[in-house]
Amino acid sequence: MLKLFTQNINVKTKIVPLVWISCSIVALVGILFGMDIGVISGVLPFITKEFNLSNNMAGWIVGSMMGGASIGALATCIISQQLGRKKSLLLSSILFCIGAVIAVFSKSTIILIIARIIIGLSVGSASFTAPLYLAEITPKSIRGMTISLYQFMVTIGILLAFISNLIFSYFQSWRSMFGILIFPSIILFFGILIIPDSPRWLASTNKKNEAIKILKKLRYSNFEVNKEIKEIFNSIKYKNQIFGWNLFKQNINFRRSVILGIILQIIQQFTGMNVMMYFSPKIFEIAGFIGTKNQLLSTLLVGLVNVLATLIAIISVDKLGRKPILYIGFTIMAIGMSILSLVLYGHIGHQYLSIISLLIFVAGFAMSAGPIIWIICAEIQPLYGRDFGISCSTIANWLANMLLGTFFLTILSKLGGPMTFILLALANISFIIFTIFVIPETKGISLEQIEKNLMNGKSLRNLGK
């Protein structure tokens, strides 16, 4: 697998083992994120029966996690800057474990919602910190690939959750579905203990000697260390130590990157991918698949395609670039949703065409907007505004996620499947236009160079030039 991940690296670039170890451990955050996304799709049919849930209450149980995630991302903006990326990730793993334990023993919908909010605090915090950490410790030649690895682990987590959902569905044990979440959070906690903190964060908090010491462990040669340290220190000097909100208020160029990050994360959610994951059994029910086990078995196929398609992004993101992959992905997603809408409208080849169209859509997302949006959001923010900028974009992701997760079933019942999915197809077409005119190509460009272009007033589209 390592050979697969490294085949697109310039042969002159040598990556030290600690980089791979650190990236692999932090990418486990993606497994937590993915497992929670996948678990709720299996839990929902069983708790709907046990607690006699309405569509609205089911939506709130799903959406409560995203509400917690929004708060978690906001709080971590401060925690990550004050305590560092490493301690933020440790806190996330602890919260996730606590939330999973409470969910297992929930006796009412209120307790279950509280558990979901706590899990959300963890996921929101981790989804903010993990891409940030990966962007800051990796060489530019593999930066896109390592952040894609995080998204790959999200898809692995979804697949693992779908597998456990199917297994525990035979015992009708939704509590066991939640219980399985405890184990990866414990593994993540102990893994985080052995990785270094971000040298860029250390430098930004005036721990320059420690930053140099860690960077020497993360780079192969002194030449690389000296060049990168110079870029980091120049960036610090350039910003004159104005942080986050103050930088946002005072600097119009920083405001541009923050707004772009927010829009990108909203775009990612309005592709429709996460609601497909949360409510895939319901969608398969509409498509004609009868019985919870058949619906969960179908979601397993979705999860497998999700994993395999993400490999395309990992292999190609630092070769083809960010924008070409987004063009392809948005086009594929629009085609998939269009086919699904037409199939449901005409009842033609109902079951099998429905699942094929959904698989097309999932593949399009997994190879493009899934990983690429997180990559760009981590790349475009300047050092002293990075915590604030990524926090804003992550909060936007979770708020949009909560909005769709909470009200999707209601929208589906009001508009019907065909109209709902054609709207998603049109949304993806509009995202192609946005990519053409606004999104920058950042392949192979250092974070410091992107920052310099941003602060010099270059258009967003040209930040990578």
From TrEMBL:
InterPro entries given in the database record: MFS_dom (IPR020846), MFS_sugar_transport-like (IPR005828), MFS_Sugar_Transporter (IPR050820), MFS_trans_sf (IPR036259), Sugar/inositol_transpt (IPR003663), Sugar_transporter_CS (IPR005829)
Where does this chain mainly localize?
membrane
Bilayer-crossing regions: 20-47, 59-79, 88-105, 111-135, 147-171, 177-195, 258-279, 299-317, 324-346, 352-376, 388-412, 418-439
**The protein's name in its UniProt record:** Galactose transporter
Membrane topology term reads: Multi-pass membrane protein
GO MF, one annotated term: transmembrane transporter activity
- The domain of life is Bacteria
